[in-house]
Sequence to fold (1033 residues):
Amino acid sequence: MSKNNGELNLKQVAEKHTDFPQLIIRKIDTALRGVNFTERAVKKAWDLNALYDAAPELETKGAGLVFGGALFRDGTLVQGVESISSLRGRILRKDKAAPYTLDAIDGKLWLLDDKQPVEEIDFVPIPEYYGKKTSRGTPMIKVVRTGPPDCLNVNVYGYCLFWKEKLPCKYCCFQESLLREGLHTQESLDDIYETVSEALKEKGRWTGMRLIAGSDFRGKTPYENDSNEYIRVLKTLQRSFGTKNIYARLVASAVPKEHLERVKEAGAVAYEPHIEVWDKKVFGKICPGKAKFFGWQYWVDNIIDAVKVFGRGNVCSQLVAGAELAQPYGFKSVEKALKSNLEGVEFLAQHGANVSFCVLWVGQGSVFFAEKQTAAPLEYYVRLAKGIRDIRKKYKLAVDFNDYRRCAIHPDTDLARLDYNEVSYEPVGAGEGR
Amino acid sequence: MNCTRSLGILTGRVFWLNKIMKGENRMGKNNGKLGVEELVSKYPDISRFIILKLDVQKRGIELTENAQEAVQDSKYRFRPRSAAYSGDDGSKKANPGPLLLRDGTTVLSGAGLKYEDPYRVHHVDGKFFLFDKGKKIEEVDFTPRPDYYGKKTSRGVPMESIASARPQRLDISPYRYCHFWDTGDQCKYCAFFTDMEEQRQLADKNFPKVIDPEDIYETVREALKEPGRISQINLTAGADYSGDPPFENEVNRYIKVLQAIGRNFKSRRFPSQLIAPAYTKRQIKRIYDETGLSSYCPDIEVWDEKLFKWICPGKEKWLGRDHWIKSALDAVEIFGKGNVYTNFVAGAETAKPYGFKTIDEALKSNFEACEFFSKHGVVFLSLVWRPWKSSKFAGQKQPPLEYYVRLVKGLHEIRKAHGLTSDNDDYKHCGNHGDSDLERID
Amino acid sequence: MSKLSKEVVDLIKDCASIKIVTTTDENGNPHAAFKGCLTVLEDGNLAFAETLEGSQNNINLVRSLWFDKNVQLTVRGKDGKTFQIKGKPYKYSYTGPLYKKFYLAARKKRGQDSEISGVWVIVPEEVRDETYEARKKIEDELHPFFRHFDRESVLVK
Fold:
């Protein structure tokens, strides 16, 4: 079956997969179809302090609205809400799939599917530090952004050398900043310190901290520059927290073990090197930069090595699920794609490492966008999430730092909520404890 | 009510029957081959305890030597062994009372009797266990000996010869004879009144055919002194059709006995059941008005009209199947919905040569009966048929266990659909009906 | 060997402790009932009286025994010490010495017009310390990422 043929809609998928939570199916569907806000919903978002106009601070025109986020009844994040953000109109949806509508009806927020209310929604308020400035006068929103509902995102650096090498990942959306090399100055690090310190004043708000960057493979050893920058930021965060260990994860490139140890020493406790596509050949085609610097095996070995540094359950790779089905590069059938992905997930689980996935978004500026690629069918994501959860459960792997709340974009880790009591930090996988 | 007309109603209501029969017909030709565990898997909504009970009822139990020794303890010692049903070794050792499963399900096991393929009860480390073909199946227990056993009435009659005990019930047979036997018209599965040796031994030489109501009064009074022990009194006896109209003498006798028992209670009615022949509406009314009886049970025994005549010739003669049905229906007007019961001997309707040839036919007939009675507020309950040695059906084959599982499931569902419960005849107040046991989780 | 430590046994036997049995019905609806009479038998099993034959609790317990489902007992001492005991109903007695003991105790407590329906024996399978401090310690060890950053154990200011 090709990825676009015979696709089941949400109702059909729910009926077929009765052991899969409907709310998570809905979440995947919102990611696939997108969500448009009505005027009433926008007004409600303002009323509920879930919208922030950052245009003046970000010095942008028009698209400066920052949205706090939307949650389903169970706390699961509603995805596909780009219509209210700077991504508006920049995501390529499947032709047939009409977007959901978010509306305010009788004082409550509802997700509408074909004009019918299907789920009640809550908004996440914007954080208290938005609107404040550092002592240097930098708007804090420019320094640290939030990932709803619980996460602070700290940008380590914004450029990606894969773009410079003209080897970007094919789903990656180009922005000018990706070419603009630049590192933090002491002043900008101080801004981070002040902003995070200010953010932490908001009681009961933050349980997740994510450090993100592009890729810089340079240095005496691979990705040394990359790790050096993470360490600078981590040390800054240590100042903000007042502790050695920061309950933060690095979304980073494949940093060699010796650098990972330095990164850990600098306070990081979890690590996410994203393999993106498990199949070696398809990986090479979709992620040519990663393939060149320094190949599939290098990235896989890095994931396994990282478990030795951070411990089982504290390392999580990621798949951009659906990318492996892009034509002409990828698999011709979802069955083969699923088999490959789950083999990869199980292989890494045997070594104590997690794999999560995010739904492929085909965004403007990406190779995929130009090629008019589309995401995989809804059922594919449901089966993948279910398969990953089963493997994670089998190996008793925790994925706490990357779950429904601390990351919120992975349907498979949304399911981890059901298994919190079954995790083990003792070796379970065949490849562990060697 | 004209019973033929009532029966005609059957053709109009087949929902439950169809549902039950349709679901089970998928079994194909595997009937009769499945054991307890296989049936537990096949019928996951039926408790394993109830399936086990049905099998133990069907096959009986045998006590190993150490278990036999263990039940001689004063805690368990119930009564002398009897040769009543199928012959015995004649030893004077005591038998235990009814078997109890862990969930409180009672099995009237008939320990001390001879069976072809019985479960064996072992006594290990102070506990009893049921074994089947050498394999340990379940921890079990026996009904404790009640406090009134061993005592005598003021006339010197041993109380245990007046009333025997189940876990929560007293069984009293005020008249120890069945006159259907006089003419060879006894029910063909019946062995109850061929040998009263057991009671005779208990009563020593004091063993009249008719028990003095005062002895019954005193026995019940003594039994009730034991806290929490008794919650039901059951009367049944052999049929005595003498009098005008028929059974009038028997009715008068029961009234006296029930009045004597009633003197032990403050309340107008007391938890009780009379399993008796089908009386006229006037006779039933008299019993209701003149005593504290709370439920009445004229047993139909076999539903199918032709088979009823063949299997229960005495009942057919006195006063015929339609009368037995009418009596139950009339009694509902007096005792109220759910307070009238009728039992049937499940499996006897498959006896050769005239019985149903397939269990599907037998089940269909029984479910029709249950539907009919339920519609009229009568609780139709099953008993597991054993072809006793002293009965005319001796040597006949019982239906397979799966028949009983399907039967109790179907009967339970039909009654439930009609909002009928068997509170006065359930696992605790009787313990002999797998179908009413199932009501515990309703 | 009993799954119950002396601490748990003592807490159960303490009259001042709150004891709750939780069951579920056919559709998974939970049902919780106070069971002040919950006690520990010599063999380490737990026992309590069921007052009413037709109670939802009793029906659920029968179903649990029949279909091999667990029930849960919670005991909480006056100082907040709390244990949760997961177990299986093993036996239901409405005749015999154990039953009589509970029956007479119920009579003594509630008067002559009272009774019990039977006594449930539960085999404990898993005991969990549900005291706040104990659970918090385990949660912090097992899920350090779940803590809010403004907590003392995360942020030292």
